[in-house]
Amino acid sequence: MSRAHLLVVDDEAAILSTLKKALTLEGYSVDVAGGVGLAAERLSRGSYDLMILDVALPDGDGVDLLERLRNEGNDTAAIMMSGHATIDAAVKATRLGALDFLEKPLSTDRLLLVVENTLRLLRAEAEAKELKAEAGYFDELIGESRAMEELRAQIGRAARSQASILITGERGTGKELVARAIHRASPRNAGPLEKLNCAAVPKDLIESELFGHEAGAFTGATKLRRGKFERASAGTLFLDEVGDMPLDMQAKLLRVLQEHEIERVGGSETFKVNVRVVAATNRNLVEACNEGQFRPDLYDRLNVVPLALPPLRARREDIPLLADRFLVAAAKHNDRPGVRLSPEAVESLGRHSFPGNVRELKNLIERLVILSPDDTVTGTDVQHALGMGAQPKTAGLYRPDIPFRVLVEEAERTILEEALAHHSGQMAATARALGLERSHLYKKAKSLGLRGE
Ligand SMILES: Nc1ncnc2c1ncn2[C@@H]1O[C@H](COP(=O)(O)OP(=O)(O)OP(=O)(O)O)[C@@H](O)[C@H]1O
Ligand SMILES: [Mg+2]
Fold this sequence. Notes:
The chain has 19 helices and 18 strands. The chain is of the alpha/beta class and 453 residues long. It has 3 domains: 5-136, Rossmann fold; 146-310, Rossmann fold, CATH 3.40.50; 314-447, Helicase, Ruva Protein, domain 3, CATH 1.10.8.60. The chain has a 5-stranded parallel sheet, with helices on both faces. A 5-stranded parallel sheet has the order 9-12-15-8-16. Strand 13 (261-262) and strand 14 (271-272) form a beta hairpin. Residues 389-395 have low confidence and may be disordered. Residues 138, 141-143, 169, 171-177, 282, 358-359, 362 line the site of adenosine-5'-triphosphate. Adenosine-5'-triphosphate binds at residues 138, 141-143, 169, 171-177, 282, 358-359, 362.
């Protein structure tokens, strides 16, 4: 909602002009109507974010107007105002979804406050709804190949058990997506899903991240902090990049998995924990064990249920479907509703080896949608984009023939991706470290199609 559109309905010209002036000064765009008839006409012509309705009007009743609108399927948010409101009218208005009921005579300040709060609430609700829809989309595992069907069945079986799960697969194969799917499908889905990226946390902080610390446990530990294990209680703990966990931490993790007990850093008590661990890595842990970089006993503990994700090149038949879904999302995201992939473009995609797997395909589609001069992406466009992707980025950020906006966006994406990874996807910490408002970072990440948690 950029500039909110308001409709004020009252029979007194003086009230209308006072409110219009005050609300306009606050930056709202305001229309007024002196009665039910005029209000209905305005509502049929334009849409409003909020209407402020008097109850007693010369040609009818504000509550009846609201009822009529609701019956017509109009759900414009409403605030009522009245000088001699009956309880009945207030009850009926509330039932019709009126968000507030103001007593007359009105205090302009109070009205402004109520309007501001109401709009904020509406915005928050709209945003939550959008995020939910988006999360649903992004969390969906796309693919109809046999490998994907088999994976879905495995996820279903694994989710029901309480056993530890180890997800392996090359980068970009969907390990995190699968970890979320497991949590959602598990009996623990009402509990939290906590994530720790073992590669992103500095070595000497992993222990306190996992187990928490008491106040004063070490320099900088001013307050008691609960660790991921405590936070994930009755839920799931996703240990991402577990292959990068330092050896001494591996020993401590193993003990927790055996004893189901933790001790905060600097603490003397032990706590029982009720957590299901899902770990993921793109390293070959058997090899890491042989090389002495990973504890074989921890490997056995984590690997109770192994889930190996296939690389995209092993299920090429899913490429057209994935490409299509990513295209729809990217087209919407970048406001290019007409963009399509030509059959040759899809064919070219099908021949590529995708070392970066699904993530590479997703990013490639986004790039194609942004760069394509026409609505139809051709096979040549795809080949060109694939060549471009292979260019070393280390040469600098500039690349010929790429619009400035796209270069900047790519740089921003890289920075935010790295920053979010560094802070385990935590928006608040990332915003602080970057000196950004949390809401700004949130919007930025959303507009770049990134997600934190
Ligand atoms: N089967 C799939 N369906 C839809 N999207 C997918 C699928 N697999 C992966 N993706 C998408 O590809 C991107 C990479 O997925 P994800 O982060 O889960 O991979 P990963 O295996 O954890 O990669 P890395 O090892 O680099 O951390 C994400 O944007 C994810 O939504
Ligand atoms: Mg990952």
